[in-house]
Amino acid sequence: MQKVALITGITGQDGAYLAAFLLNKGYYVHGIKRRTSQFNTARIDHLYQDLHKNDIRFFLHYGDLTDSTNLIRIIQQVQPDEIYNLAAQSHVQVSFETPEYTANVDAVGTLRLLEAIRILGLTTKTRIYQASTSELFGKVQETPQKETTPFYPRSPYAAAKIYAYWITVNYREAYGIYACNGILFNHESPIRGETFVTRKITRVAARIKLGLQENLYLGNLDAKRDWGYAGDYVKAMWMMLQQEQPEDYVIATGETHSVREFVELAFKNVDIDIVWRGTGLEEKGIDSISGKELVHVDPRYFRPTEVDILLGDPTKAKEKLGWKSETNLETLVRMMIIEDLKNVQRDLLCQKNGFKVRSWSE
Ligand code: NDP
Ligand code: GDR
């Protein structure tokens, strides 16, 4: 029997990689997408199957994590073997500006899904994966961070995700639902959201290289993250739901790098050697050949409370799931830069033919 999966957040970075992965494994894949005023399916358009044809295994449903009636109806209709809850207001900085909405989606949204499983009597049929995060560790109590490291959230996003983490554990213990938290450290790709720091850097480096932009403005250059590749990480999500017992796992590379190092690496991939001058707000990243000041610090990107360093210990995932990160940072950055150079070339072509292209980046 082919399995049926339901993915919330299917239009996001991880949703797109996971949907492709599960379709490849022969799953029927259902996804929940939000109604938006413009198409929001660019990341999954290549997976679309014409509903008028036979043997369709990919379906999209309109829905929202803030609407439990809708979630109950979709789950009742789909009767999934596995639910992957990836939907979230996932931007840490934005969560300081929209804290209540973030809590509604990221915390209560998870509860709504778990309750739907219970209300529909699916507690023994449906397994659920919760997209937990290294942001739970926040103000780090121990390095490297593993499953037993205490949490200390540092943003409305992390505080919402900590509720989601514990309600997932609680429904596992209270009702016997097969429910797992994947505590995933940052993972990136060429389809990463454009306002997360890695993609912002690779995108602007490509634009600077090809003359479409002059400067890159960033916040905290000292923040350190354990960056992996999203394509590797969605495999771990699936593995967690295939075990005998539901457990929570840290998924990480086991390496950490600063934003500053990421900048150097990205520019190196477009043949620009960045050297740093000055300190604090005056710090600048300079092209060592032309002397141009390319990278500037802009305090608008500082966060009220920051997570200074994240470094994961993926030993449990390695030993119990047989999972390990397969893509190193150099390869990841190269993949991202190659795609962003193509995107800029497309923009340049549009511009040359009189079409307007986006001239700013957040
Ligand atoms: P994205 O921001 O790329 O995608 C988020 C998805 O959630 C999008 O499909 C978005 O829809 C959807 N969404 C947002 N709000 C709602 C809502 N109210 N109802 C329904 N859907 C909604 O995130 P990622 O793919 O990077 O991350 C996936 C999950 O993993 C998130 O929960 C994130 O918090 C978590 N996570 C991510 C990590 C990472 O490094 N990427 C690390 C650890 C955890 P739309 O496209 O319409 O905006
Ligand atoms: P993060 O990712 O907050 O770790 O959350 P992000 O890429 O936004 O920030 C990483 C670090 O870079 C610093 N930074 C900047 N960040 C952004 N976005 N823009 C900037 O200009 C900038 N300059 C410096 C930040 O201060 C931070 O320290 C991501 C999300 O995917 C979450 O959903 C997920 O849970 C965690 O990763 C793990």
Automatic annotation (TrEMBL):
Keyword Lipid biosynthesis: no
Catalytic reactions on record: GDP-alpha-D-mannose = GDP-4-dehydro-alpha-D-rhamnose + H2O
Family per similarity comment: Belongs to the NAD(P)-dependent epimerase/dehydratase family. GDP-mannose 4,6-dehydratase subfamily.
Cofactor: NADP(+)
Gene3D superfamilies xref list: NAD(P)-binding Rossmann-like Domain (3.40.50.720), UDP-galactose 4-epimerase, domain 1 (3.90.25.10)
The protein's name: GDP-mannose 4,6-dehydratase
The enzyme's E.C. designation: 4.2.1.47
Any one GO molecular-function label of the UniProt entry: GDP-mannose 4,6-dehydratase activity
Top-rank lineage group of the source organism: Bacteria
Function text: Catalyzes the conversion of GDP-D-mannose to GDP-4-dehydro-6-deoxy-D-mannose.
HAMAP family named in the record: GDP_Man_dehydratase (MF_00955)
The gene coding this protein: gmd
Annotated NAD(P)-binding domain residues: 6-336
Keywords from the named record: Lyase, NADP
Pfam families: GDP_Man_Dehyd
Enzyme class: lyase
